[in-house]
Design brief:
The structure is a single chain. The protein is mainly alpha-helical and 118 residues long. It has helices at residues 6-17, 43-51, 61-84, 97-117; strands spanning 30-33, 36-39. Strands 1-2 form a two-stranded antiparallel sheet. A hairpin with a 2-residue loop joins strand 1 and strand 2. The longest helix is centred in the middle third of the chain and has 24 residues, at 61-84.
């Protein structure tokens, strides 16, 4: 197995993703509007909501626009991952089978319906 230094890894990732306008990697999905490049799904509604008149007129409305993206990430990504590594990500998947089964059942029965309902 080959290990990369931090600088080598950064160079490979930056090359793979394409450098943003400020030399930082721009991750997918990407949206460009004028000189602004926006990446990451939760950032898109934060930017587009007010521009398109979809965020409402109160100062906190823009965060409501962002809530569905964050809810999807929390419930449909983070919690699914945590169901496969319920004790710690440092232990192999195979060493957590009993706990994984219990956590997955709870997630499917209790947490998933609440996220889908939202």
């Amino acid at each position: 197995m080959q290990f990369l230094t931090v600088d080598e890894a950064r160079e490979k990732v930056t090359h793979w993703l394409g450098a943003g306008d400020h030399g930082h990697p721009a991750t997918s999905p990407r949206f460009k509007h004028g000189d602004i490049v926006i990446s990451q799904t939760p950032n898109l509604p934060l930017y587009l909501g007010p521009k398109l008149g979809l965020a409402g007129s109160h100062a906190d409305d823009v965060y409501r626009v962002n809530a569905p993206a964050l809810t999807a990430l929390d419930g449909l990504s983070n919690e699914v991952h945590d169901s496969h590594h319920p004790i710690t990500v440092m232990l192999p998947y195979e060493d957590q089978k009993g706990e994984r089964r219990r956590r997955s059942q709870y997630w499917i029965q209790k947490r998933l319906p609440s996220h889908l309902e939202y």
